[in-house]
Amino acid sequence: MPRNRIKPCYNCSQTPSLLYRVKYDKEGNWTFLCLECWQQISQNNPFYLYGGTWKAKKK
Predict the structure, then answer these.
(1) CB-based contact 23:29 (threshold 8 Å)
(2) Which of 14, 20, 23, 43 lies 20 to 30 Å (CA to CA) from residue 8?
């Protein structure tokens, strides 16, 4: 039975069902971003690194 999990977007605090794990600044810490924030932050960012997706419904 799938279980629902909740995790907020690091940038805007929304709680979507899908988040992107990324590094996007000089410090290089992993954060989770929603689609809207991910699209803005990933554009032309030399520090951007994709690290996978997080889904609220885990098998």
Answers:
(1) yes
(2) 43
pLDDT digits (tens, 9 = 90+) for 15-31: 999 999 999 999 999 99
Instruction: Write the CB contacts of 44 (distance below 8 Å, at least 6 apart in sequence).
Output: none
Cβ atoms 53, 21 nearer than 8 A: yes
8, pLDDT greater than 70: yes
Enumerate helices (H) and strands (E) in the chain, giving the number of each: 1, 5
Question: Which residues 6+ apart lie within 8 Å of 54 measured at CB?
Answer: 7, 18, 19, 20, 21, 32
The whole-model pTM stands at 0.86
Residues with Cβ within 8 Å of residue 14, at least 6 apart in sequence: 8, 34
